[in-house]
């Protein structure tokens, strides 16, 4: 699995070989990233892929001094339950 940030497509993406199997859609607003949607293909469910996508998003935000608005319910739930995200969480 390869996780990457695609700024042009405004997504955090994960690939299995050449197949995109998951993503987080982002909207850039200056120094803020609005994470609006997370999706992982059903056949890849239950493997922790969505969580790793969130980790990649958080890593990107930290490296680029950005904050995240977790509009996506999945990401918001993770941020609310884990205070390790507080440094990037724009409440």
From TrEMBL:
Top-level taxon of the source organism? Bacteria
Which PROSITE patterns does the UniProt record give? GNAT, GNAT_YJDJ
Q: What Pfam families does the database record attribute to this sequence?
A: Acetyltransf_CG
Q: Where is the N-acetyltransferase domain?
A: 1-91, 4-90
Residues annotated as coiled-coil are none
Q: What is this protein called?
A: N-acetyltransferase
Q: What is the lineage of its organism?
A: Bacteria, Bacillati, Bacillota, Tissierellia, Tissierellales
């Amino acid at each position: 699995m390869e996780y990457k940030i695609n700024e042009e497509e405004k997504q955090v993406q994960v690939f299995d070989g050449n197949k995109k199997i998951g993503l987080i859609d982002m909207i850039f607003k200056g120094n803020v990233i609005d994470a609006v949607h997370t999706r992982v293909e059903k056949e890849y469910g239950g493997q922790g892929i969505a969580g790793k996508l969130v980790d990649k998003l958080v890593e990107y935000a930290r490296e680029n001094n950005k904050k995240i608005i977790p509009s996506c319910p999945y990401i918001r739930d993770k941020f609310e339950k884990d205070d390790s995200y507080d440094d990037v969480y724009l409440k």
